[in-house]
Write a structure and sequence with these properties.
Rossmann fold; two-stranded parallel ribbon
Length: 374
């Protein structure tokens, strides 16, 4: 299945007037959206998840999106479906599941996600992009005694790329969430590989993160900054209007260019027992549950913890004052998806996309940094 919205810019095969990127393992589009906001043209994307693809296609309508197992996609299709030439492609990016770096399949030899990194290499070999970005969870660095990291450096070096990696925290790029991810950036151009400087800091983390080269960082955004203008909800209730005008810089940013109607603001349904448990916790406290992951009520005056996806994340974190889990729009705000980004399809999948995406503002910061050298 392919969602094809080719722009006239692609049809001639002539180089477009913006740097071009392609996004493998694109999911719902957080990484792509951030690059588009930075002035890139994301020409091609792919993923095996048809529901995530529908969310992507609803918001990035000019990108050609193929819904298929990447092992069954010929890299030649990138050129055939977009009209691009290999020389047009500046950036190839993607975030394979961390199991995809298990080159020896040590954890589960039958896991179909094994060796997905090798599929990225197949695209790299054919397309020869100038820059490569690989995003993943921080746990990748300690996986199998560091072998996946060594493999990334080794395989890219064999292909003429210089690579560096760094752990970045979305909080430092204006996202109201403490979310760390590791990014590998590589190029074959000889340009320096630099990572975006933090723009926001946490005063409690000390002066080293309050100042960058003598410039004071902006204070981090909180949950109140993120969702304080959204209307209160009861479990299962939905509202399509804002509670008040935006009162924070972040809210103004999220509402820029958005339709007057508020989308995706529906609270999860809860049983009376669940509501009772949520009610027992004060803001910032753990909700009494015996489960493999922690459920907690958010605090207005703090950034959110890392949003999770999980197998069926009806809710992981409760609203600071309402006795319920978060709506998809509240999760989207905490991930820095603006209100003009509308989520479609099954609500459980919408919640999963808002739990495993790259926050667009974080992606935008990386894109701007790379664009300096293009």
């Amino acid at each position: 299945m392919a969602f094809k919205y080719p722009s006239a810019l692609f049809l001639s095969g002539i180089c477009v007037d913006r740097p071009v990127a392609i996004d493998l393992f694109a999911g719902g589009g957080g990484l792509s959206y951030g690059f588009e906001e930075a002035g890139f043209k994301v020409a091609f994307a792919c993923d095996i998840d048809k529901d995530a693809a529908k969310i992507y296609a609803a918001n990035l309508r000019e990108t050609v999106y193929i819904v298929r197992d990447i092992r069954r996609i010929d890299p030649q299709e990138v050129l055939e479906t977009t009209g691009l030439r290999k020389s047009d492609i500046s950036v190839l990016m993607g975030g394979p599941p961390c199991q995809g770096f298990s080159l020896m399949g040590l954890r589960n030899p039958n896991d179909p996600r094994n060796n997905l990194f090798k599929e990225m290499l197949r695209f790299i070999d054919f397309l020869r992009p100038s820059w490569i970005i690989i995003e993943n969870v921080v746990g990748l660095l300690s996986m199998e005694r560091g072998e996946p990291v060594k493999a990334i450096y080794r395989e890219l070096s064999k292909r003429g790329y210089v690579c560096k990696h760094k752990i970045l925290n979305a909080l430092h790029y204006g996202v109201p969430q403490r979310r760390k991810r590791v990014f590998f950036i590589a190029n074959r151009t000889g340009d320096p590989i630099t990572f975006p400087k933090p723009t926001h800091g946490d005063p409690r983390e000390g002066d080293l993160l309050q100042f960058i080269e003598g410039e004071r960082l902006n204070p981090f955004f909180t949950v109140r900054d993120a969702i304080g203008d959204l209307p209160s909800l009861k479990p299962g209730e939905e509202k399509d209007y804002y509670a008040c005008p935006p009162f924070s810089e972040y809210q103004r940013l999220m509402r820029e260019g958005a339709p007057k109607r508020l989308f995706n603001h529906r609270a999860p349904n809860h049983t009376e027992e669940v509501i009772k448990r949520i009610r027992m916790a004060r803001p910032g406290e753990r909700i009494p549950y015996r489960c493999s992951f922690e459920k907690r009520r958010l605090r207005w005056d703090e950034p959110a913890p890392t949003l999770l996806d999980g197998p069926r994340p009806t809710w992981n974190y409760a609203h600071p004052v309402d006795d319920r889990g978060l709506s998809v729009r509240e999760r989207a705000r905490i991930m820095s998806f603006p209100d003009r980004f509308v989520f479609v399809g099954p609500i459980p999948k919408q919640r999963m996309v808002t739990g495993n995406a790259v926050p667009p503002l974080m992606a935008k910061a990386i894109a701007i940094e790379i664009k300096r050298y293009l």
